Amino acid sequence: MEGEPTLRLRVFDLNCWAIRYLSKRRQERIWLIGDKLRQEGFDLVLLQEVWSEQDYSDLKAKLASCYPFSHYFRSGVIGSGLCIFSRFPILDTLLYQYSLNGYPYMLQHGDWFCGKSVGSLGAGQVLVWESQPLCFLQLHAEYCRDKDAYLPHRLVQAWELAQFIRHTSKAADVVLLGGDLNMHPEDVGIRLLRGWTGLRDAFAEATRFEGCKNGCTLVPDNCFTDKSEMLPFPLGIRIDYILYKAISSFTVKCEELKTTTGPAPGMAIPFSDHEAVMATLHIQRQGQPAGATLGTADLALADVVTEARTEVGVGLRAAQRQRYFWGRMAVLALLLLLLQAAAALGTLAGLGAEQPFPKLSFCLLAFLSLGVLILATGLHVFHTMEVKMLHGTEDQMWMALRALQERP
């Protein structure tokens, strides 16, 4: 309505790639990011992959004057890497860790150890809205698009994120979601997330855009990116997003969207291996509550849910094969240990005493069998849990699909 107050909200989102001892020029880049945030004066800052709490503490001290409110989300073995800085009071926080986060034996990827999560908080601004659930996250990385072994896990994460948003935002006026989704705009996971929640893409909705072509946030020109991985994408890929929607009597419009384009101003290096995304949103109260977004394209949404459920089913069958394989290995290792125990008892009882007992080789074989037994049992338990999570998500998607198909 005319005369209603309008909030101009400036949001900054960046995957910082700040892994201690591994990320190149990490401390220097963290300092540059702090300078950028202090100069620009954004309203909300969403950062991912800030793996060192010391880096967060340094940023917090540097930005205290312009961002008096901040929070760091802790999860997993090495932390979630998620943190937020805000000009508005943070009313409450919540961290949800996805049920599937990759594989613990894929040490070179490390997603399982960080415990990929979605962080949610309520932020308040007195004149315009009472509460604003704000989510920011990072989903499991893709690593190889042609042979994407993590696609089922990423789809489970996208589904859990969509359910999380639907169930936690019922009392909200506005929902914002930002972060590195590790999905291309037309991937089934991003279509599932947007279709099931009604979130709108700031890049697609922006009145003005400035930055990398097609809004790409991972580009070959960045000196920190792996050029070989970017060969299929000469212009880059867009995997970092700012999504939003209004739920109650508010409207949200994206006035402007920007991305950084290479090196930081006056420097020879960029802020990260990702480009930052900066959105300017206009939030205004309207006369009547906004209608529900879900259900406006039920047929298209049903197709997306069906596609996602099919991929989850493929992952379920692969997990079942892994569970069977490692279960069989555990049984074989246990049988070998029992045979060795029987041989040792036979020797102690005097059977076969005419031949010397090979103690060294026997002990080595026993230790090897015990190691295989422990490893195989652990992986069997892990893949059993994976099967349960994938099966549960498949059932949830089936119920959602049935509800969409039966809706008048």
State the main characteristics.
408 residues; alpha+beta; Deoxyribonuclease I, Chain A; globular; hydrolase; sphingomyelin phosphodiesterase activity; membrane; Sph/SMPD2-like; EC 3.1.4.12
SSE map:
Elements: E1 6-18, H1 26-40, E2 44-50, H2 53-62, E3 69-72, E4 83-86, E5 90-97, H3 111-114, E6 117-125, E7 129-138, H4 151-168, E8 174-180, H5 188-197, E9 200-201, H6 202-205, E10 208-210, E11 240-246, E12 250-259, E13 277-285, H7 298-348, H8 359-406
Parallel strand pairs: 1-2, 7-8, 10-12
Antiparallel strand pairs: 1-13, 2-4, 3-4, 5-6, 6-7, 8-11, 9-11, 12-13
Helix pairs in contact: 4-5, 4-7, 4-8, 5-7, 7-8
Pathway: Sphingolipid metabolism; Lipid metabolism; sphingolipid metabolism
Pfam family, one: Exo_endo_phos
InterPro entries: Endo/exonu/phosph_ase_sf, Endo/exonuclease/phosphatase, Sph/SMPD2-like
**CATH level-3 fold name of the largest domain:** Deoxyribonuclease I, Chain A
Question: What proportion of the residues is helical, as a percent range?
Answer: 25-40%
Q: Report the β-strand fraction as a percent range.
A: 15-25%
The strand line-up of the biggest sheet is 3-4-2-1-13-12-10
Total helices: the number is: 8
The CATH H-level superfamily of the largest domain is: Endonuclease/exonuclease/phosphatase
